[in-house]
Amino acid sequence: MKVVILAGGFGTRIAEESHLRPKPMIEIGDQPILWHIMKHYAAYGFTDFVICAGYKQNLIKEYFADYFLHTSDITFDLGNNSMEVHDVFAETWRVTVVNTGLNTMTGGRVKRIQKYIGDEPFFLTYGDGVSNVNIKEELEFHRSHGKIATITAINPGQRFGVLGIDLNNRVEAFREKNDADGSCINGGFMILEPRVFDYLENDRTIFEQETLSQLSAEGELMAYRHDGFWHCMDTQRDKERLEQMWESGNAAWKVWD
Question: Nearest-5° angle of CA 174, CA 220, CA 124?
Fold first, then answer.
């Protein structure tokens, strides 16, 4: 199964960093948060990635093109115009970076990568959130219910719109938060059947407001409940918190060795 990562937005709420690079390329430790997300999926054996790029997409392509430069020792012989790479280390990943447009909405970005997916289910997540969600358990849950879509439901405190979930884990509705809410939100880490492309119209389609709402109304959206760690990097404060966790050795999302 392929892992699709949405990495094309402007990241305006963390403009201190995103004016220089796409938000998924902002580092936690010495690697972009995008790398952390990919390491998570790879830990469960899923290593074929499709990156939905847009804003400053060239920086994502350049990162992977020069990946070994980031992870190996290099000798540059300027007199002979040569380069020697020592102890080459590279992930066993296949990465397709797709320019899905500068102003394309989330659903439109997914629609644009349809040709790279084919007629098979796929993972979909955002390029700015980390978690220790058990990917294989979620996949087993997805296969058990036979619906088009599974989203990961988490309860991070009420900063976002929330989900109405029935006793059978079916998502009945999306709505905005209120002060009394203790409800779950969509934490990303989704699994989708290829039929979802029928719900994506064009570049203006907003995946969260239109596609997921329609799937919910038709009874085709299920929630995998995750009570473990989840955190998005939405602001500079979020970035600093994740950085502190990583540097202290307490990165709860690090499920790999």
Answer: 80
